[in-house]
Write a structure and sequence with these properties.
This protein is about 40% helix and about 15% strand. It is of the alpha/beta class. It has a domain of about 230 residues: Rossmann fold (3-Layer(aba) Sandwich), CATH 3.40.50.720. α1 runs parallel beside α2, α1 packs across α8 and α9 packs across α11. The longest helix has 21 residues. Keywords: NAD.
Length: about 325
């Protein structure tokens, strides 16, 4: 795959993972078309700052628009004719789905359907798309394997991500569209999402505000550093799509660190990096939350010879350094 001639279409390019992936591909010489609706689910200025970095690359094109706009998507596919589509645009967040369900139906279902229709019409050679560890629901067997059943989602967000996998399977079966699903496990790092724990806890600790600690801190999360995530995606992209010998040409991977960390331990590490103590507000587990996530990454190791290597301690250090610099904190 020649990077200079390969055209990659990234949806959600101003988002956390989308930004890091686009930047890495641009650094490697790929041509990237990015789309993002720049919604206000979280601080828009963060998205704009990410976009400012990307637009400095001559081989990057940005379009503001939504996945629900099929007419716009079809025109972009017709003009750009992408070799590879990496679909990361989605309405994220488990708790937000409890109060704003319609946003998930529009973005995660209709938007995903539109992408598949465009991939079908323009014969896209490989679609990689964001799924989530939340599809495992209340699964008590760990580590979570892609062979496990995932038909009991416990949040609407998880249900839409599972629906994405099912619809992708159907399109792969009916139209031979090669699809690769990416089940992300609690991705964190510089330029992260302010609604996620490491980011929001940092903000609260620095401002000496209390933090809500759900399940009294006994939850475990498979925190996965952003550089490990982008490396895995790029290796899967370069490896090529599921082969024609596989019917349908469909595959799902866990993109996780294979090292669950207890919430209380994560807070302790964060306190060490910030040099400040958290004001803790212990609370019961919230509806839609799962007590533990833990990725089986055997397929990543087997198929792309890759296992994440950045520890939570190192990743946290890098995040805090970025956070202090970005928000001008001495």
């Amino acid at each position: 795959m020649q990077s200079t001639s390969c055209k990659v279409f990234i949806t959600g390019c101003a988002g956390f993972i989308g930004f890091h992936l686009a930047k890495r591909l641009l650094d490697e010489g790929f041509r990237v078309l990015g789309i993002d609706n720049m919604n206000n689910y979280y601080d828009k200025s963060l998205k704009e700052a990410r976009l400012t970095i990307l637009t400095k690359y001559p081989q990057f094109t940005f379009i503001k628009g939504s996945m629900e706009n099929l007419e716009l998507l079809e025109s972009l596919f017709a003009q750009f004719i992408p070799d590879i589509v990496i679909h990361l645009a989605a309405q994220a967040g488990v708790r937000y789905s409890l109060t704003n369900p319609e946003a998930y139906i529009q973005s995660n279902l209709i938007g995903f359907f539109n992408i598949l229709e465009c991939c079908k019409k323009y014969n896209t050679s490989h679609l990689l798309y964001a799924s989530s560890s939340s599809v495992y629901g209340g699964n008590e067997q760990t580590p979570f394997s892609t062979k496990d059943r995932t038909d009991q989602p416990i949040s609407l967000y998880a249900a839409t991500k599972k629906a994405n996998e099912l619809i992708a399977y159907t399109y792969s079966h009916l139209y031979q569209i090669p699809t690769t699903g990416l089940r992300f496990f609690t991705v964190y790092g510089p330029w992260g999402r302010p609604d996620m724990a490491i980011f929001s806890f940092s903000q609260a600790i620095i401002n000496q505000q209390p933090i809500d600690i759900y399940n009294y801190g006994n939850m475990k999360r498979d925190f996965t550093y952003i550089d490990d995530v982008t490396e895995a995606i790029i290796r899967l992209m370069k490896k090529g799509p599921p082969t024609a010998s596989v019917h349908p040409p469909y595959k799902v991977y866990n993109i996780g660190n294979h090292q669950p960390v207890q919430l209380n331990e994560m807070i302790k590490l964060l306190e060490e990096q910030l040099g400040m103590k958290a004001i803790k507000n212990p609370m019961p587990i919230q509806p839609g939350d799962v007590p533990v996530t833990f990725a089986d990454i055997d397929d990543l190791i087997k198929d792309i010879q890759f296992a994440p290597s950045i520890s939570i301690k190192e990743g946290m250090k890098r995040f805090v350094e970025w956070y202090k610099e970005y928000y001008n904190i001495p």
